Amino acid sequence: MNSQTTSPAQSPLRGLAKDWSSDKDAFKNVSWGKTMMWIFLLSDTFIFSCFLVGYMSVRMTSTVDWPIPSEVFALTIGGHHIPLVLIAIMTFILITSSGTMAMAVNYGYRRQRKKAAILMLVTAFFGVCFVGMQAFEWTKLIVEEGVRPWGNPMGAAQFGAAFFMITGFHGFHVSIGVIYLLIVALKVLRGDYEERGYEIVEITGLYWHFVDLVWVFIFAFFYLW
Q: pTM to 2 decimals?
């Protein structure tokens, strides 16, 4: 038997370990900016996952009745009690902003910087609308319903703590994203990335799509459950 022959189990594993450890094949065409954004988003995924898992654990083990979201987050419009109407609009706005952000990335790689910058500004506007509606939602719960992080007249006291922590942390991310979008959009419009290329638009888009995706999980677990 040839001494140079390696066992089938060892060769693929050694090759895989060599490729990844050498950073030669696995990350050959990935820039540092994009890599660091993915690492940041991965760490943020763990944080949001812990928040949502903690929320589900508290809700399932609570001995006090949990408030019904369709009633808590309802608005009275024209004398009609409409459940989750504000949340539905907020969700639609974020989904739409993902579309405008994707279009901005497309125009960025085409080097049509004016169109890319305008779409980023539109995306930032949607983000401002979302945060404004969230502020209205918070004001309604605090002023009209009397919900606090340490108490809740409608049922389980943990409801207020979970709601303000999760939606507040997400709203903070959206606010940071709006600032990020505005800064990058203005630099794109000014032509600062003309020589280096417009990968920064895609990196910004990664952050914004992540924020939108997190909201889908918050919407499903917090408002529909």
A: 0.84
Would you say 218 and 52 are in contact if contact means Cβ atoms under 8 Å apart?
Answer: yes
CATH class of domain segment(s) 29-223: mainly alpha
β strands within the chain, DSSP E = 74-77, 80-83
Q: Quick check: 125 pLDDT over 90?
A: yes
- State the Cα–Cα distance between residues 28 and 52, nearest whole angstrom: 35
Q: How far, rounded to the nearest angstrom, does the alpha carbon of residue 224 sit from its chain's CA centroid?
A: 18
Predicted confidence (pLDDT) at residue 4 exceeds the cutoff of 70:
no
Task: Give me the residue label for tokens 């049509």.
Answer: 112
The first and second tokens of residue 170, run together, are 């997400």
CA distances from 145 to 39, 56, 67, 152, 168 (A): 40, 23, 12, 8, 18
Phi, psi of 219 (to 5 degrees): -60, -45
pLDDT-based confidence at residue 76 (cuts at 50, 70, 90) = confident
Is the pLDDT at 26 greater than 70? The verdict is no
Q: Given its phi and psi angles, is residue 80 left (phi above 0), alpha (psi -120 to 50 degrees) or beta?
A: beta
Q: What are the angstrom distances between the C-alpha of 223 and each of 52, 88, 108, 111? A: 12, 10, 36, 40
**Contacts for 104 with CB less than 8 Å, ≥ 6 apart:** 115, 116, 117, 119, 120, 123, 201, 205
How high is the pLDDT of residue 16?
Answer: 59
